[in-house]
């Protein structure tokens, strides 16, 4: 009897609350600062929702709002200095080489550039003295809608915000349970106070600015206000709504970055949005978003704590609470963030996705291609968001012309090269300090994404029209770039660095540049292999293939140092910072696929390399920790992978579950989501491997809809850490090779057919 009553009054309602909250971030107080606000976005138009009761701010972003301008800044001395610098490095005169490189290889980038906020939509609710109860703010990642609700003196208030990719607009609805309850002043502004705002027909607030005092894009934004009941009147450049029953605001924005007439674009978006009612937009938005989001579901075990606010769950985790569902939420949040910041036809997700505050964003919010931009896309294919990968690949194709120019003007070589970072001006030249900039393999690393997109989708047309050219041009550059190391007779890449790491040179000075950092060779090896494979698929370029095959034979192999670790540079040098956040010489472990087989020396050396970094304080930035999760997953160590995921949430995650470098940087979210997938399934080597790094914490679980290379979609169920069942849809009809523990199965498949296997990999049904 007592148990039944308990079930009815306590457990059942709790269960339903928990279920309802499974895919929600929610809080019982407004955001204290930006790091607690909740992000919504349609790939380009985004907002951070604070959930303030009386003075609400919707901080706004549009992905093409950038200060800066197109500029060529190849150092004219570069070509003439290259051989001297190489000679100095071969002779071990690192400091001299670096000094010369800083002077003669670094470009003189004259214009400052940065991603910037679009602005702020301020909602000032006039009566601020009243008692508030039942406050909740949430982000529902199942519907991609942020909501704030509370009660004041018997009226329930609710504010909904979503950014619709369908309508290219942000929608905000303010409602109340009783009539005539909404009194609000609505204004648009922008940091720096240089934006011009005006009212159009008393119903629209228009804001424009040629950013950075004319050195940047021209932005245009319109907020259109619709009220039901009450009155609407102009107040300066803001709109005042009094005693309304309901208020809807539709906001659109565009810049001259990719619109000939951005104002006309904004006006037409508003006009189109007005042609339908709010509810139609809302259901269209949900349907559009869910066609991607719903492809994957995940259950990692008990969701007992879903009825607690997200920030409390995070602090409980820090205090030792075990909350598998929080990791599942974090996983789906990674997918939510990618759908919301990277949509076909738009720009790729930058260092902060699309969400950034103010006029100077950390690291300019750019595209850092020495790990960060790539990490943003590690989850795209395997979490079934292949379409979201395309903005990044399109971006690489667009880097082409500048990358060819840099190869030619800076080094006198053919093909394409880009260095450590770029932005929406598509620059590819290095600038600043050699320690981070003198690194020619940025674009080469990115080419992996073009090949991987093909591996997952089998889209030969894509490979023919877009992917192959990206691979080919990078390969052409590196065939010409590599030189013989006089000591070993093998090909090396240089002058170059192992991203951002330093070593102690023989004369006791700290240096960064060498001939032959290991990462370069790992990247180039994979680039050449991928280009050969792509050429074979397309049956072309036999001459190029022959050259690449020859170069592969001569390229410096990955070497192991006397202490058993993978060498970071071609000679044994002592790193100045042994816990450095970049673990570049493990590229071949992840995201590469050079180090795969457990019995090999390099596999063991990879393990030692990472253990050493960690024992010297490594993994201290969010993205570095996220990379480590993937390393341990590839090392098939579920406990270590989990330990680092757990540390990522405990140490490098903000209350809104965004990754904290610090400051906020989105790569850690994306990298960790990729890592969780990698713990549950891998497909980079010899077919598909099931549950390769399952931790004790996730004893029972299920993941549905993740994707393996070769075009297989998988539902995996496990119990007591043992595989129960795997359902595989063969999307392309490729042969399947499946491994679970020591069992392997090989099967020819038919396109569109579903195969189900048990723990012995015996076919249950198909
Ligand atoms: C890389 C990293 C930094 C930072 C920056 C945006 O250069 O070394 O930690 O993430 O990118």
Report what the structure shows:
This protein is an alpha+beta fold. The protein has 18 helices and 35 strands. The chain has a nine-stranded antiparallel β-sheet with strand order 1-8-9-10-11-18-15-14-13. Helix 2 (78-90) packs antiparallel against helix 3, helix 13 (518-538) runs antiparallel to helix 14 and helix 16 (622-634) packs antiparallel against helix 17 (638-651). The longest helix has 26 residues, at 386-411. The relative contact order is 0.09. Residues 1-13 have low confidence and may be disordered. The protein binds alpha-L-fucopyranose. Alpha-L-fucopyranose (FUC) binds at residues 351, 363, 368, 370, 372, 436, 500, 581-582, 621, 623, 661, 665. Alpha-L-fucopyranose is lined by residues 351, 363, 368, 370, 372, 436, 500, 581-582, 621, 623, 661, 665.
Level of helix content? Answer: 25-40%
Q: What percentage of the residues does DSSP assign to strands (E)?
A: 15-25%
Biggest sheet: strands, sense, closure? 9 strands, antiparallel
Alpha-carbon distance between the two ends: 46 Å
Q: What best-fitting shape do the alpha-carbon axes yield?
A: globular
Bound molecules: alpha-L-fucopyranose
As residue ranges, the low-confidence spans are 1-13
The number of distinct helices, counting runs of at least 4 residues, comes to 18
| Overall pLDDT | 96
Features:
seven-stranded antiparallel β-sheet, 766 residues, 35 strands
